[in-house]
Amino acid sequence: MKLFDLHLYHGFQIQTHAYPRHFVESPEFRYEMENIRRERPDCLLLNLPGLSRSQISSLIEYPFPVLFIGDFHLGEFRTPGLNQIREDTGERGESLVSLAFASGYRDIVLVCGIEKNY
Questions:
Q1: Among 19, 42, 45, 80, which residue's CB has the most CB atoms within a 10 Å radius?
Q2: Domains of the chain
Q3: How many angstroms separate the Cα of 107 from the Cα of each of 12, 36, 54?
Q4: At a CB cut-off of 8 Å and minimum separation 6, what does 36 contact?
Q5: Beta strand 66-69 with 13-19: parallel, antiparallel or unpaired?
Q6: Sheet with 83-85, edge to edge strand ranges
Q7: Residues 28-73: tens digit of each pLDDT
Q8: What distance in Å separates the CA atoms of residue 84 and residue 25, rounded to the nearest whole number?
Q9: What pTM value is reported for the model?
Q10: Tell me: the pLDDT tens digits for 19-30?
Q11: Pair 112, 39: CB distance under 8 Å
């Protein structure tokens, strides 16, 4: 399944959010993450390298799986409960959606930065 094939799968929903580089430091970002937490999707995929240690620690505590994609600007971060994929390919999004679908998830949120900001 590819990102643009979602119309072929009944009952499957994916939300995508793309934010500018410094958005993760704003009150609006905290507001957006709280809204996602309240929505309780099946899983949350995050590609936001600018997250702080406290933001990462907070997101790990969400009541659903949170998967961090790529590296963090702060360097290597290891902590119990951290689910992280550290690779970078153009097909990453499609692979993650396919894996989530195969795992039975039907309500997914993908949050990432705008590519030109990296």
A1: 45
A2: 3-117 (3.50.50)
A3: 6, 11, 26
A4: 44, 109, 111
A5: unpaired
A6: 13-19, 107-113, 43-47, 66-69, 83-85
A7: 999 999 999 999 988 888 888 888 899 999 999 999 999 888 777 7
A8: 21
A9: 0.66
A10: 777 888 899 999
A11: no
